[in-house]
């Protein structure tokens, strides 16, 4: 039997509020649809399809980590609120595609019960308004059809306010029927406020309903077939490969708070105007569309336990093109900005024994999110922050909350910094990763020092905020697009991205300076002149992909487009 | 020295491993090939336990059988003045004894249906399942009131007792016997609480909660 539109309509209770105990995952069901219900540490109630998107294992045997739900089978993690997948252990170096997101049912709490709307839009349906302060009875699950229970309640003197809502005046009771499946119904009773509700009375009523259950199950042994559950796992491909990044879709968000976190750094907390925040992962960034028309990328500093608003840190760039100045001077609390969905070009592995994080100045922002995640995941880490002075250290309060894992290095000149990097990067052990973010010169030094200390290329992860290398745009070459069957000439002084746009082939871009990784395309053949700072040296040598915004070909190249 | 005559997949043996883990008492095990070897029915094993059942505990030569009896013995021996076993109050002692007996009923119903489904023993599995379901419903009602009137354990008092240990395995393994706990939310919360006790250990088919 399949779920009908009629059954999807309206709000139904699926649990009592106290069923959603701390760190518990409650197993609910409504019209045959299995639900995983869990309360996060911030109090938010999540009601999701009770299947991991990977292999369909019940999420109710998983673990409520307080801020994420962990599937017991292969360890996929899903975020509080958005239900977006935040981590796939089998692909620790990749960010899960944004579309890997569990189905969220709308839910709310009222009368001590958790209510769910299966159709995602409860429309005009309203939850019965009953006086507050009543006492909830124990739920009684009866293995018979909803109609059978309904008739029994009416025969017992209860008046039907709707097929799912009854009033038993003689017992001072309001009763809700939860259609668990075609052949299972839960009776949820609420004793009127002020009515006798001591334990003896609760026991007497519980016994009465248990006897009703036993009688109905005896008299109606044949129940209808169960309703099929709706569930669509994600494809194997999507589970493995990060989705191709698309440009264009933005979300309006309000500046809830703007505050100073260092003399030249302002923090902004941005909250969505409609609906929940999209899922994000540590290391992710958003494009912020500014009032002056500029678009700038900023890293998300949030840990996975804060899913109600994004916090970014913006350093005033005195010789910049006006992006940071607009945020510092023009944007005020209450303003509305357009933001892209979070994108992650700097994913964090969580399967290592130890992780070293090195931040320079405002490069701290993505690493702050990583440090918070590692701390909540119980993974050993150390965070080194380099700043010009104690006073200039951004997010000092947030760093304090991370405790002893944070080491602050201030006022070091280039030579002293190099010596500090050498000390930090010494004694590299098994199963270790290094993440570094900061000014380009510092990144170059750290990468060189790490390589010298024996770190492998695939252990070193970095994110440049800017590409300060001088670009060589001379030389023309031919680009053949294997899938589009198009061949174009890229002349001297122009980029692949620019030329392809004229042919209506749009490669998504963001920084257009070879620093953000958004325009990555796969290379099928040909020699590439890599000019970006996003790919590692090994990736550049492998010649399997390139940054189409700044890198060029020699002679003829074939791209997977 | 403590030696446990043990079979990894036995819920009754698991009770003893849980108890020794909570108490932090060291022990060795002697593997008994319950399935498929049916070693518990061998003449050699019946010299140790004429009932041909697991588990059996040997503590410095003192040999005792029956999971509930072993739990009682271990609590009295290694948890003197503690709250796992008897001695807190006459009322609580009575409650513990009552739920130890209930654990025996769980073995005879859910445990039996599991033997049929997972180990291919011949018995009336449907009758065992029906009884198992009745017991789960009784347990759920009891635990709902215990959450309100006491501390959410089977017996009264702030801490879990050997009654909780005795009832945990076959309730936790009920899905091996094709018995869902979906209609028993209080039971599910109790299982979660139990798994969070310091020293908790898992067995095959039982996942950790943290």
Walk me through what this model shows.
- The complex is a heterodimer of chains A (561) and B (210).
- By secondary structure, chain A is of the alpha+beta class.
- Chain A has eleven helices and 32 strands.
- In chain A, the strands form seven sheets. In chain A, strands 11, 12, 13, 14, 15 and 16 form a six-stranded antiparallel β-sheet that branches. In chain A, strands 20-19-22-17-18-21 form a six-stranded antiparallel β-sheet.
- Chain A is elongated.
- Chain A starts with a helix and ends with a strand.
- Chain B contains seven helices and four strands; from the N terminus they run E-H-E-H-E-E-H-H-H-H-H.
- A four-stranded mixed β-sheet of chain B has the order 2-1-3-4, with helices on one face.
- The A-B interface holds A 15, 18-19, 21, 23-24, 26-27, 29, 61, 63, 72, 138-139, 141, 184, 186, 199, 202-203, 206, 210 and B 137, 141, 144-145, 147-149, 181-183, 185-186, 188-189, 192, 207-210.
Biggest sheet of chain B: strands side by side, in what order? Answer: 2-1-3-4
CATH superfamily of the largest domain in chain A: Rieske [2Fe-2S] iron-sulphur domain
Low-confidence stretches of chain B: none
Calculate Rg of chain A over CA atoms. Answer: 28 Å
Give the topology string of chain B: H per helix, E per strand.
EHEHEEHHHHH
Proportion of residues in extended strands of chain A: 25-35%
Q: How would you state the average pLDDT of chain B, rounded?
A: 96
Mean pLDDT rating of chain A = 90
Structural class of chain B: alpha+beta
The number of helical runs of chain A is 11
CATH class of the largest domain in chain B: Mainly Alpha
Structural class of chain A: alpha+beta
Taking Cα atoms only, what radius of gyration of chain B do you get, to the nearest Å?
Answer: 17 Å
Q: What proportion of the residues of chain A is helical, as a percent range?
A: 10-25%
Task: Please summarize the sheet with the most strands of chain A.
Answer: 6 strands, antiparallel
At CATH level 2, the architecture of the largest domain in chain B is Up-down Bundle
How many domain units of chain A? 4
């Amino acid at each position: 039997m399949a779920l009908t539109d009629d059954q999807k309509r309206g709000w139904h209770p699926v649990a009592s509020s106290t069923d959603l105990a701390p760190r518990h995952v409650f197993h609910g069901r409504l019209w045959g649809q299995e639900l995983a219900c869990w309360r996060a540490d911030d109090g938010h109630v999540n009601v999701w399809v009770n299947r991991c998107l990977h292999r369909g294992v019940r999420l109710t045997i998983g673990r409520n980590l307080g801020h994420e739900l962990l599937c017991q089978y292969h360890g996929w993690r899903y975020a509080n609120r958005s239900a977006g997948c935040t981590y796939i252990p089998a692909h620790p170096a990749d960010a899960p595609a944004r579309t890997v997101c569990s189905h969220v049912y709308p839910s709310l709490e009222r009368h001590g019960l958790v209510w769910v709307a299966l159709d995602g839009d409860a429309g005009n349906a309203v939850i019965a308004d009953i006086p507050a302060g009543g006492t909830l009875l124990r739920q009684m699950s009866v293995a018979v059809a909803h109609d059978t229970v309904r008739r029994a309640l009416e025969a017992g003197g209860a008046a039907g306010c709707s097929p799912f809502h009854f009033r038993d005046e003689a017992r001072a009771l309001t009763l809700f029927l939860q259609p668990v499946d075609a052949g299972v119904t839960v009776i949820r009773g609420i004793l009127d406020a002020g009515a006798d509700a001591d334990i003896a009375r609760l026991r007497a009523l519980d016994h009465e309903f248990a006897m009703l259950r036993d009688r109905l199950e005896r008299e109606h042994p044949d129940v209808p077939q169960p309703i099929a559950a709706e569930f669509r796992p994600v494809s194997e491909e999507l589970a493995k490969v990060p989705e191709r990044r698309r440009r264009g879709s933005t979300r309006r968000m309000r500046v809830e708070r703007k505050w100073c976190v260092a003399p030249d750094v302002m923090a902004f907390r941005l909250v969505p105007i409609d609906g929940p925040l999209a899922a994000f992962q540590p290391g992710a960034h958003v494009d912020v569309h500014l009032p002056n028309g500029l678009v700038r990328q900023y890293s998300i500093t949030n840990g996975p336990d804060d899913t109600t608003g994004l916090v970014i840190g913006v350093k005033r760039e005195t010789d910049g093109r006006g992006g940071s100045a607009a945020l510092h001077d023009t944007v005020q609390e209450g303003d509305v900005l357009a933001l892209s969905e979070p994108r992650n070009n700097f994913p964090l592995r969580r399967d290592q024994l130890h992780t070293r994080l090195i931040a320079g100045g405002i490069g701290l922002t993505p690493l702050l999110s990583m440090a918070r995640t590692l701390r909540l995941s119980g993974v050993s880490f150390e965070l080194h922050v380099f700043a010009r002075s104690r006073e200039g250290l951004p997010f000092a309060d947030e760093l304090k909350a991370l405790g002893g894992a944070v080491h602050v290095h201030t006022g070091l000149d280039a030579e002293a910094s190099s010596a500090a990097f050498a000390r930090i990067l010494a004694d590299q052990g098994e199963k270790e990763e290094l993440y570094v973010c900061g000014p380009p010169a510092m990144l170059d030094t750290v990468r060189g020092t790490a390589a010298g200390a024996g770190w492998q290329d695939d252990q070193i992860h970095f994110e440049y905020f800017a590409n300060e290398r001088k670009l060589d745009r001379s030389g023309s070459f031919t680009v053949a697009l294997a899938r589009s069957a198009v061949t174009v000439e890229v002349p001297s002084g122009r980029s692949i991205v620019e030329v392809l746009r004229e042919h209506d082939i749009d490669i998504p871009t963001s920084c257009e300076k070879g620093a953000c990784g958004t325009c990555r395309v796969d290379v099928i053949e040909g020699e590439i002149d890599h000019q970006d700072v996003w790919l590692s040296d090994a990736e550049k040598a492998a010649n399997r992909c390139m940054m189409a915004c700044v890198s060029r070909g020699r002679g003829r190249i074939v791209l997977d487009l | 020295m403590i030696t446990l005559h043990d079979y990894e997949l036995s819920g009754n043996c698991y009770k003893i491993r849980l108890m020794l883990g909570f108490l932090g008492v060291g022990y060795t095990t002697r593997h008994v090939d319950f399935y498929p070897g049916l070693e518990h029915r061998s003449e050699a094993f019946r010299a140790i336990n004429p009932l041909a059942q697991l588990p059996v505990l040997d503590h410095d030569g003192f040999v005792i059988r029956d999971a509930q009896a072993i739990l009682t013995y271990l609590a009295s021996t290694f948890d003197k003045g503690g709250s796992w076993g008897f001695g807190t109050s006459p009322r609580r002692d009575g409650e513990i004894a009552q739920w130890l007996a209930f654990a025996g009923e769980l073995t005879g119903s859910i445990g039996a249906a599991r033997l049929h489904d997972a180990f291919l023993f011949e018995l009336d599995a449907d009758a065992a399942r029906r009884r198992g379901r009745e017991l789960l419903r009784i347990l759920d009602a009891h635990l709902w009131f215990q959450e309100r009137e006491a501390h959410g354990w089977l017996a009264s008092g702030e801490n879990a007792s050997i009654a909780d240990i005795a009832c945990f395995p076959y309730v936790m393994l009920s899905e091996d016997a094709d018995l869902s706990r979906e209609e028993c939310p209080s039971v599910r919360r109790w299982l979660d609480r139990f798994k969070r006790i310091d020293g908790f250990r898992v067995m095959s088919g039982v996942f950790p909660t943290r």
